[in-house]
Design brief:
Layout: H1 5-17, E1 37-45, E2 48-56, H2 57-61, H3 70-84, E3 91-92, E4 98-107, E5 121-130, E6 138-140, H4 142-147, E7 153-160, E8 163-170, E9 175-177
Parallel strand pairs: 1-7
Antiparallel strand pairs: 1-2, 2-5, 3-6, 4-5, 6-9, 7-8
The protein binds zinc ion.
């Protein structure tokens, strides 16, 4: 996978500023900002399936600042609309009978007064209601990968009544499975 040179230079600069101490040596999982790599949290609580995604804005928009041109504004609007109607992007196990309920998506880069020239993330949350949540063992992410070709890899954390799972999905794989 291609590491964005800007990310590397920022990490290097930070390491220098901190006296070259290891920057990512925390105990808690660190959501590193790596272009092409997403963090996806999947939580199943009763019938409610919640998908929470954190993505480098570059992986969704193809740029990482507030939209400036008409073309960038359209790209951003279309991407947000696709995420907010995210039923087609995520296909849970049909056995689980999940129906898309609602979703939200936004980025700090789109807020008024957002600083320009910094890395930015996009956050999305989608909710489904599942008739047979105990049957949920997989989610097909093909819709998401087709819609956003810059996404290369997802790190998923899955929390269900069956336990907690961690999975990494890398193209060309499209289906996240867990807990057999
Ligand atoms: Zn970035």
């Amino acid at each position: 996978m291609k590491l964005d040179p800007r990310c590397v230079s920022i990490a290097s600069a930070l390491a220098f500023a901190l006296g070259a101490a290891p920057v990512l040596a925390a105990d808690a999982p660190v959501h590193a900002h790596v272009h092409g790599a997403l963090q996806l949290d999947i939580a199943l609580d009763g019938p409610t399936l919640t998908l929470s995604m954190e993505a480098p804005l570059d992986s969704v928009f193809g740029f990482e600042h507030a939209p400036r041109t008409a073309a960038e504004k359209k790209t951003a609007q279309d991407a947000l609309a696709a995420l907010r109607a995210s039923g087609p992007l995520f296909t849970p196990d049909s056995a689980a009978g999940c129906v898309f309920k609602s979703a939200s998506a936004d980025s700090e880069a789109l807020q008024p007064g957002a600083k320009v020239g910094e890395h930015a993330d996009l956050d999305m949350t989608a909710e489904f209601t599942c008739a047979n949540p105990g049957q949920l063992r997989r989610i097909d992410l093909g819709g998401l990968l087709d819609r956003f070709p810059r996404i290369q890899r997802l790190q998923a954390q899955i929390v269900t009544a069956q336990g907690q799972f961690r999975q990494t999905l890398q193209r060309p794989a499209r289906v996240l499975t867990w807990g057999r």
